[in-house]
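Changelog excerpt

This revision adds worked examples to the README so contributors can see how folded entries look when concatenated. The first example is reproduced verbatim below.
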Amino acid sequence: MSSSSSQSLRIGIVGFGTFGQFLAKTMIKQGHSLSATSRSDYSDLCLQMGIHFYRDVSAFLAADIDVIVLCTSILSLSEVVGSMPLASLKRPSLFVDVLSVKEHPRELLLRELPVHSDILCTHPMFGPVTGKNGWKGLTFMYDKVRIRNEAICSGFIQIFAGEGCKMVEMTCEEHDKAAAKSQFITHTIGRTLAEMDIKSTPIDTKGFQELVKLKETMIGNSFDLFSGLFVYNRFASQELENLEHALQKVKETLVERMNEEKGQEKN
């Protein structure tokens, strides 16, 4: 059973796509008051969910909101934040991003937001598929970039801690270094397997079944997410090179062994 947050927050979501909706369900369940704005019209869905939907971003920013959660894609964050009429903000709010890269939003928000706005960079390491049966044991990374109102920040972090997430506090740079070696490489391998068009066979090993599952999971994610992990994580290029070098090394080792074996056969 999930534990609700001790503090009821007024939360505004910018970008009410699949991930925004996914987060909203748990936030509502915990008793928080939600509003949303998005380029697409989600007014009917928000009405069903008990969320106030704003077509006008100025009116959204002028509402009495404690926390503004940016649920845009990596590729569109700069455009979305750059086009927000931030002068409409009624009072200092905590801005939270949930992107899969961290240095990019950190630098952008520090540059674009008013100096009195708090900034929390986060990465819930799960989504609608992996988190469909609850968030217990799933990782939530966060970096308190600029926090003056500790109560609001702690209240937001409690949303995830209260659901049993594994809470990891680290810097945005540490996150991107680790994510380039893990998340980006996972997506790259999955996309590579898709390019090879691997499919199940009647004699699949367990290992191969896992590879097919990985391929299907990765191509289920948008290419915008995959390209964002590469374009906006400065450590990703090196990891891609490391992968290429590793594959070349494995190939050279195999060819060397093949030549040795064939040479022995002739002798």
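The second example, added in the same revision:
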Amino acid sequence: METLRIAWVGRHPLDAGMRAVCPGVAVVPLDPLQVLSFDDVVRLAGFAPEVIVYSDKSGPPPFSGLERYPCLTVFYCVDSHIHAWYPDYAQAFDLCAVSLRDHLPRFVSRLGAERVMWLPPFPRQEDRPKDAPKIHDLLFVGKVDPVLTPGRHAFLAELGRLVPGLCVTRGAYRDLFPTAKLVLNVAEGGDLNFRVFEALACGACLLTPEVGHGQSELFTPGEHLFTYPPMDVRAVAELTAGLLADAPRRERVAAAGEALVRSRHRPEHRAAALVDFIQGHRPFAGLIAARQATAASLFSRVLRPLYLHWAEALHPSPEAAVYLAMGRRSRAAC
């Protein structure tokens, strides 16, 4: 298969997987609130790409003139549970890969099924961490803030009263997960998050909420991990008590979960699926031409309202002025 020249814009854990399966990838870092023209991407990548992939940085739209880019454009969308405007923005791209499966209809209704794929999360591409003494009964690693994560904060506070062995901390998950008999995931946004895959790749026995998004199709509850109804404190407490009393079961499920992740859900697996999806749309000229033919409409219907929104949201700041200028372009100029 012909090697693609891809500019991968925005650092992401999938970077290493993409480089492993597609040598023609150049990673273009994206600073917060940075806006890039096509010429900027070419300069930073070191070549004129056949494909630009925007790796979701959970920020404002990062491209100017996107509707006119002369190469294939792909939106790798991760945080659609946070940003309701993502399906609209995706219309300005030729293709879209969506992390959260239950959100696919929002994108398909705008782009069509053939232009959208499901690309689930995965663990970072690292060797298995070393085994460590199990000093924690139940461990949660992540941000807990009464303002930023109020649901998670309240849930863990109540759970701590029922499970005295609960440890809530922050730090390097690869160092911390191996120290726990059980690892807890709390998906406040209802998303299938990366922590599921990272915990399993560390050989952890995982307790995670029933969130949908294909989780029960990727993993079998009771075989690869354990699930609980979202934010159900008593269910977690009961599950924890039963598993703490059954070490063989914990170890068996942890081993099966790790084996499955390493055989099917590594970064290189996701990268290969994405590259196959992109290659399946060769020749790219038809998609590019179709987008460019509707560039004026894309700008006025989709991009201009987003740019003006971000100009207002970021005011007063230099970045606000950039988005205001982008939104004020005449239709003739696009």
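Reviewer comment on example two: The CA atoms of residues 4 and 235 lie 48 Å apart. Confidence is low (pLDDT under 50) at residues 330-334.
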